[in-house]
Amino acid sequence: MNRLVKQHQKVSIDLMPTEPTTSRSTRSRLCNAAIGLGAATVLASCASDAPQDTWAPEGKYAQDIHNLQWPIFMIAGIVGLIVFGVITFVVVKFRDRGQPIPEQGHGNALIEYVFIAIPALLLAGIAVPTVAGVISLNDTDDADCVVNVTGQQWWWEYDYPVEADGTICGAQPTGEAAPIITSGQMVIPVDAKVVIRGTSRDVIHSFWVPKLNGKRDMVPGRVHTWNFQAEQPGIYAGQCAEFCGLSHANMRMEIVALDKGDFQAWIDNQLEPYQSPEAGTLAAKGEETFISQCSRCHQVDGLTDADGELVVSAPEQFVWSGAAPNLTNLMTRNTFAGASWDLLTEDAREAVWEASADEFGALYLEGVTKGTLNEIDLKEWLRDAPSKKPMYTDPENLEDTDGKTRGMPYLALSEDQIDELVAYLIERK
Amino acid sequence: MALIEKPAPIAVPDVATPSSSYGVFRRPVESTGWKSWLFTIDHKKLGIMYGAVALFFFLVGGFEALLIRLQLAGPDGTILDADKYNQMFTMHATTMVFLFVMPMAAAFANYFVPLQIGARDVAFPRINAFGFWCFLFGGIFLNTSWILGGAADGGWFMYAPNSSVPFSPTSGIDFWGLGLQITGIASLTGAINLIVTVINMRAPGMSLMKMPIFTWMILVVQFLLLFAIPVITVALFLLMFQRNFDATFFTVEAGADPLLWQHLFWIFGHPEVYILILPSFGIVSEVLPVFSRKPLFGYPLVVFSGAAIGFVGWGVWAHHMFASGLGPISVAVFSVATMAIAIPTGVKIVNWTMTLWGGKLIFTTSMLFAIGLIVQFTIGGLSGVTHAVAPSDTQQTDTYYIVAHFHYVLFGGAILGIFAGLYYWWPKVFGKLLDEKWGKWNFWTMIVGMNLTFGPMHVVGLQGQPRRMYVHTAARNGEGFFNITFWNLVSSIGAFILGIGVLLFFINVVISSRRSEKAPLDPWDARSLEWLTTSPPKEHNFDVIPTVGHLDEFFHLKYEDRGEGDHHDFQQVATAEELIAEQEANADEHIHLPSPSYWPIVLAFALPVMAYGVIYNLLLVPAGAAIALASMFGWSLEPHTASPADYDPPAPEGGAELEVSTNG
Predict the structure, then answer these.
(1) In Å, how far is B469's CA from the nearest CA of chain A?
(2) pLDDT of B433-446, one tens digit each?
(3) Fewer CB within 10 Å: C terminus or N terminus of chain A?
C-alpha cells in the first residue's frame, strides 16, 4: 500500500503544482486584487456631464428611479465585495501546502439554510419598493400636458393636440388654436406632468430621455403612455433605444423644457401664420425650389403655390412609413435629421446647451439665425442625404417597399438650389 | 480504437445476423480514416467533432466581435458601415450562442455523460450523429449568407416588424431563420437522446442522487431544450411564412401585435440562457471538488437548485420586455420572479465556495478557470439583480450596461466553465495533457482581457450609451478624460487582449499535441467514473460496466475510509492503472455496439437543400424532402449492426472478440 501511495504522490508532484507554483499563484492573485481595486478607483471617475447619464437624474421620474436604484446597487456591490473577500481568503488559506487529504465533508444544512434565507430576505426587501415604483411610474393619469409622439425610421414626430378646453399642452394659445406638428425637439413646460402618447409608423422604436425618465417602447399598432416632468429649463438629450434598422444610431431627440412664460411664447410662435419671403430675394426663389423639390414630402403649413393654392404634402405616396418631418418652424429647433446634426454652429450650440436655467429660455427662443446657422451640415444633407445618414433610398432597391423610400433620397440638387433652399429655410421660424 | 471485427461464423445464432445492408452503398464499417469520422455513431467521436466545430465558430464569432470593437474604438468609426455593422452584431451573437456555447456543451455532454453514468454509448447513436450533422450543416448554411446577399441584420433577437421584408429586404434573415431551424433539430434530438440515456442507461447501483453533478446539470438542460426549442421553432416558422409566403403574423396593418414575436422569442430566450450556463455550472461543480480534494459541498442542494433554476426560468421571460409596454401588473410580477431566481443561483455560489473552504487547493489551469467563473459570474449575477428592479431596468435596458451583464455571465460564466472543462478533460480525450504554463498565460490573459473589455461597459451603459449602434458620437459622450469615448477605447483594447488570450489556448493545443509524453490515466486523482477508462477510452468505454455504490464512485474505488465513527481516515487502496488492469482482466465477453451508418449524414444533408429551396427555388424543397424521405426509409430499415457482407476481412487486433448483435 505504501508503494501505491508513493506512486500516487509521484503523480501529484509531477503534474499538479505544489509549493513554488502555488505561491506564485497566490502572488498573482494578490496582484489581481490590486489591479481590481485600482480599476475600481479609476472606474469611479467617469464622464462628467454625460448628457444621457442615468445616474444624474434631472426630472421627477428619473429621480424616483434613481432613489430606488442606488441603494440596490450599493447592496449588490457590498455582496460582491463580500464574495470576493471570501474567495480571496479561501484561495490563500486553503492552498495546498502538503497537508493530508482534508475532511471529506458533504455539506452543512445550517449554512445552506442561512445562505438561502439571507438573499431571500434581502430580495424581499428590494421587491417591495420595486413593485411600488412600477405602479407609480406607470401612473399616466392627470396629465398637465399631452403630446402625441410617433417614431418613424429614423426621426421623431411630435403632435400637440388641441384639448377640449382649447389648450395646447396646458397653455392657452393667444391666437387661433390648431394642432402643432414638430419633430426632433419636443418642447414642454417645466413643472408640468407631460404625458406622451407614443406609437410608431413602422418598426418598434423606444423613446428615451434618460435624465427625465427611463425608456418606453414605441410599437406600431399600439399606444403607450409615458411621463416626463422637468424641473428646470434646459435641453435634455435622448436617443431611440430599440434597434430599428439602418440608422438606429442616428435617431436622436431632445426634450426642451421652458418656463411657463417662454413656453407660452413658443406655442404662440408655432401658431403664427405663414409668412412668405420677400419677393425677389434668394429666399423667394428658395420657396419655389422648396415647392418643387421638397413639398411633396415635407409639410410647411400655410405655404401656397403660384396659384395661391395651399401646398399639402403627400409623403404617404413617397415614403414607406408615410410621413416626413414638418418643417413649418424648422429654425425654432436647433437639430435636424432625427436630431442627428446641429442647426447651430459649435459656439452657438454650446451657448444654448450650456446656458444656465435663467438664460436658457430666451436663448432657445431666439432659434437659429443667419449668423448662427450651421450651413455645412445642412448643405451636406441637402446635397446628398443618404451619404450622410444611412437610409434605404436607392431607387434600384425599392421593390420590397413598392418603390417608396425609407428616409430622404438623393435629390440631385444643384448648388444654386441648395443655396436658395437654405435661404428659404432660415426664415422658417 | 477497437476495430469492429467480423464475427466468427456462429453455428446456432442466438441473435439474428442480417444478411444484407439496406441502401445503395455498402454500409461504412471503417474504423480508421476519414470515413470513420464521417459515418461514425460513436458518442466520443461525435463529441470531438462537436467540440472542434464549436471552437471554429468561437473564432468566427470572436473575429466578428473584434470588428465590432474596432468600429467602436473611437467616435464615428468608419471600419464598418451601418449595414455591415448590423449584420456583424447579429451574427456575432447568433454564432456565439447557437454555434459555439450550445454545441460546446453538446460536445462535453456527448462525450462524458455516457462515461459518467457507466454506459457504452447514448440511447440512440444514429440520431446522435444526425444531430451533429444538422448542427454542422445548419451552421454552414447560416454563414453562407455572408456571400449570398448579406447576413441577417435584425439582431439575434430579431424583433418584428423590423424582421419583415420591407425592413430587411435581403435574404439574410431567411438564412438566419432556416439555419436556426436546422440547428434546432440538432438540439432537440440531442435532448431526447440524452434524457433517455440518463434515465435508462445508468450503471447498476447509480441512483439519480449518485449521479455525477455534471450529468445532472446536463439532464436539466436537456429538459429545458425539450420545451424551449419548440417555442423558437414555432416563432421561426411564423417568421419564415411572414417573409416568404405573405403571411401576416407580424403585419400591423392586418391587426398583428408585434409583441407576439417578443413573447415567443423570450419564452424560448430566457430558458436558453440557462441552457447556456448550466453545463458550465456542471463542469465547475466537477472541477472544484477534484482540485480541493474534497466532495462537492451540498450535492443535493446543488442538484435541486439546478432543477429550480430550470423550473423558475420559465417564469421570468418578460424581464426582457420591461420597457416594451406591458402593463404594470405584468412588469411587477416578472420583476419579483426575476429576483426569486437569484436565490438558487446564489446557492451554487455558496456551495462552490464552501467546497473550496477547508480543502487542499491545487491551482491547475482547470481550477483557475473554475475559480475564475465563481468570481466573474458573481459580477454578472449581481448586475442581473439590478436589472430585476424593473424601474431601474427602464434606464438600463438596451444600453451597454446590459451588454456588460450578459458578457460577464456568458464569457465569465459559460466560457470560463468551458475552458475549465477543456483543460480538465483534455488528457482523457486525447491522451495528452495541455501544457500548464501556457495554460496559466491563457487564463490570466483572458481574465485581464475580459475585464478590460466588459468592465467599462457597465460605466458607459449607465452613462447613457445605447447598444446596437454602429457609431457613438462625441456629442453624447460627456466631458472629461474618462468619458464614454475613453471607455470605449479601453473596451476595444481589452477585446484584442482577450483575443490574444483565446489564441494562447490554440497555441497550447498545438504545442501539447507535438509532445510525445502521454498523460497518465488519472492525472488529477479525480472522483467520477469517466476516469475509470483508458486515455482515450476504448470504443466500448468500459471493459466491465461498474456497479456503483456511492456518489463519486471512482474516488471510493481508490480510497477507503479506514477511520472509525466520526473520525474519517481515507487511505488510497488502488490507483487508476490498477483498476483498469483489473477491468481488463475481467472484461465482458459479449460487448454489443451498433455499426456506423451513412443515413444520418444523408438525412441531415437534405435539410439545407430544402432551406436553399425556400430562399431560391421552391423546386428544391420537394427535392430535399425526397432525399429526407428516402433517408428515413433507409435508416429505419437498416439493421443496427452491419451485415458480414459489408466487411472487407480485416486482421483482428488483439483484445476481446466482439460479437455484433442488435442493440440500440
Answers:
(1) 5
(2) 999 999 999 999 99
(3) N
